[in-house]
Automatic annotation (TrEMBL):
A single GO BP: DNA recombination
Lineage: Bacteria, Bacillati, Actinomycetota, Actinomycetes, Mycobacteriales
Single GO MF annotation: DNA binding
Matching PROSITE patterns: TYR_RECOMBINASE
Organism superkingdom: Bacteria
InterPro entries attached to this UniProt entry: DNA_brk_join_enz, Integrase-like_cat_sf, Integrase_catalytic, Tyrosine_recombinase_XerCD
Domain Tyr recombinase: 1-217
Protein name: Integrase family protein
Keywords: DNA recombination, Plasmid
SUPFAM superfamilies per record: DNA breaking-rejoining enzymes
């Protein structure tokens, strides 16, 4: 298909809309995957369709999607849990590549600029057609260019008023900072980032003024001296299993609980009122039933003058109605049906 070109009537500039749309799409995909995974830029370019694997939770037998990360700095690979947000991004990338290549993700060889070798042809997710209409894996340099273009269009500036500059590694720091701020233990974050020790992960957390860093490190040293050493060690296999199995306890009738790892419920399990409830679109009929039930109970409370109970029921009704409206808006924005993540089925060649 020939590229779509238009002319800017104000400047006379010829604009390649096909190329502009392609660059905008992959800039979005790069930012989303980096911020949801914390992977290095080399690891990002190595992600293939084959990296999506299934993991069965030992206790429930539930199948959850995982993303296999090929290491770039160590000899150990790692698996990351694929969140619903990340699953949607990956599914969009896979669908786009399939649509442009006759229903299949193209098999493309990737050149490793560090090792100076070309790898085998694989279904890489971060690849696009070149001007010669050949598929090519996006390089780290191109990724930085796409980020720069996105920042320039957004017009973002730092505290000094200078144009904001972001590198792929900055999203790795954002991921680590957000994970720790959300209650995830540092040694678990280190495992997710592929670090061999906690100290390396601590360096990825938010960077502040030097004096503040020094003061904060002094505070940490004092805190560490009075805290159990177990908090700063490598996680045991049991702890790692508990971390992975933690997600099964988030399953609720109406969706999933989004509260941070290791935190307790702040709403005494009144999930319908809780802002951390991530609604399942299929739960709409149940929410309607809950609203009808709450109205009946409020009417009963009025007749019996249960004023104390009425206040709680009305609060729940307001929250349930708000969630129903939000769910309907979400359903309008998203296509119907399940997201096709496209996890490949690998059969035994024997």
């Amino acid at each position: 298909m020939p590229p779509v070109q238009v002319e800017d009537l104000a400047t006379g500039e010829q604009i390649d809309l096909t190329r502009s749309e392609d660059e905008a799409f992959f800039a979005w995909a790069i930012v989303e995957v980096l911020r949801h995974t914390g992977v290095r830029v080399e690891e990002l370019t190595e992600i293939t369709h084959l990296a999506l694997v299934s993991y069965k939770l030992p206790d429930t037998g539930e199948i959850v999607p995982m993303l296999q990360i090929v290491p770039s700095k160590s000899n150990e690979e790692r698996l990351l849990l694929v969140s619903p947000e990340l699953a949607s991004v990956l599914a969009t990338i896979i669908s786009r590549l399939r649509k442009a290549n006759g229903g299949m993700v193209p098999l493309t060889a990737r050149y490793d600029s560090h090792e100076r070798v070309t790898g085998p042809a694989l279904p890489h997710l971060f690849q696009r057609r070149t001007s010669s209409w050949q598929w090519q894996v996006i390089s780290a340099a191109t990724i930085q260019v796409l980020l720069n273009q996105t920042l320039a269009r957004a017009g973002l500036r730092d505290a000094a008023g200078q144009p904001l500059r972001y590198t792929p590694h900055d999203f790795r720091r954002c991921f680590a900072t957000e994970a720790v701020a959300g209650g995830l233990p540092v040694h678990i974050v280190a495992r997710l980032l592929g670090h061999k020790n906690v100290t390396t992960s601590q360096a990825y957390m938010a960077v502040f003024d030097e004096d503040l860093v020094r003061t904060y490190r002094t505070f940490l040293d004092k805190r560490r001296a009075i805290r159990p050493e177990a908090e700063y060690r490598e996680p045991t296999e049991k702890e790692w299993r508990e971390f992975q199995q933690h997600f099964q306890t988030r399953k609720l009738e109406l969706g999933e609980c989004g509260r941070p790892y290791g935190s307790s419920c702040r709403h005494e399990f009144a999930c319908i009122r809780c802002p951390s409830l991530r609604l399942d679109p299929t739960a709409r009929p149940r929410i309607i039933e809950i609203i009808a039930n709450l109205k009946d109970r409020i009417q009963e409370a009025k007749l019996n003058r249960w004023l104390g109970e009425m206040e709680g029921l009305e609060s729940s009704l307001k929250a349930a109605t708000t969630k129903l409206v939000s769910l309907d808006r979400m359903r309008e924005r998203q296509p119907t049906g399940q997201v096709n993540l496209g996890i490949p089925v690998i059969t035994d060649p024997r």
